[in-house]
């Protein structure tokens, strides 16, 4: 479904990704792992077209999208939840969802209700400004917002980072539900090894912008792989 080949990305003269290959088959959950600063966020931003690539290709469902702007990738079915649970802080929860729905060009308003069905805890908060929500609630809103565009693939950058433990479990359960029950393909950057071990079909370990290991989810239990991830 998603195929990244030979990806090179740089910030000015500082190259960060070097020939990265990554594949996420339809319906799979793939996890990108690695220590801080190895290039995980850069990889997701390049996959979504937030950052330009210096070389390499990104294909989605067979189509070359390497030069496609981000909003068109979203319309193709790629939903992105960037790092840091960003929402429109001055807008209410309802407005956050509506603005995304309007921007998606969808005529079907029921997608907003469907997204709220996934996160029922957001319903009583619909009139609250997003900036006043807790970190966990903002992350739930950020994921709900991505769902409003009815993605076939969800791309999440450390969705449980800095979030209170009670909501971490809820967010993990939602990702599991979207993947297993709804069949969404998922590309996830995740630091929590046990969550990745429980859910990932496959994983890719980055180190200094290079893929140093990839394999089936079960291999994440290997000591050798865990050593690559230790700080
Ligand atoms: N806007 C930027 N300009 C210049 N360098 C950047 C920029 N963003 C990131 N970098 C550098 O690129 C490298 C990779 O950063 P990136 O955020 O992709 O790593 P990461 O693996 O996601 O790290 P973390 O787990 O801390 O989020 C780092 O050395 C970082 O300092």
UniProtKB/TrEMBL annotation:
It comes from the Bacteria. The keyword ATP-binding applies. The gene is urtE. NCBIfam families: urea_trans_UrtE. GO terms for molecular function: ATP binding; ATP hydrolysis activity; branched-chain amino acid transmembrane transporter activity. Keywords: Amino-acid transport, ATP-binding, Nucleotide-binding, Transport. InterPro entries: AAA+_ATPase, ABC_transporter-like_ATP-bd, ABC_transptr_urea_ATP-bd_UrtE, BCAA_Transport_ATP-bd_LivF, P-loop_NTPase. Residues 2-231 form the ABC transporter domain. SMART domains: AAA. This is Urea ABC transporter ATP-binding subunit UrtE. GO terms for biological process: L-amino acid transport. The keyword Glycoprotein does not apply. Belongs to the ABC transporter superfamily.
């Amino acid at each position: 479904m998603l195929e990244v080949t030979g990806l090179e990305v740089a910030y000015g003269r500082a190259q960060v990704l070097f020939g990265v290959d990554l594949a996420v088959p339809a319906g799979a959950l793939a996890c990108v792992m690695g220590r801080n600063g190895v290039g995980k966020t850069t990889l997701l931003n390049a996959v979504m077209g937030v950052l330009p690539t210096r070389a390499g290709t990104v294909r989605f469902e067979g189509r070359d999208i390497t030069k496609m702007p981000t909003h068109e990738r979203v319309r193709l079915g790629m939903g992105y939840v960037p790092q840091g649970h960003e929402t429109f802080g001055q807008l209410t929860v309802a407005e956050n969802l509506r603005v995304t729905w309007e921007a998606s060009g969808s005529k079907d308003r029921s997608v907003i209700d469907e997204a709220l069905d996934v996160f029922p805890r957001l319903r009583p908060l619909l009139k609250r400004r997003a900036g006043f929500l807790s970190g966990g609630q903002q992350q739930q809103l950020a994921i709900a917002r991505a769902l409003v565009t009815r993605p076939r693939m969800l791309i999440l950058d450390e969705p449980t980072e800095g979030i209170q433990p009670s909501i971490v479990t809820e967010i993990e359960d939602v990702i599991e539900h979207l993947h297993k029950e709804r069949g969404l393909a998922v590309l996830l950057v995740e630091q929590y090894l046990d969550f990745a071990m429980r859910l990932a079909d496959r994983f890719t370990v980055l180190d200094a912008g290079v893929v140093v290991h990839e394999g089936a989810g079960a291999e994440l239990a290997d000591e050798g792989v865990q050593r690559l991830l230790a700080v």
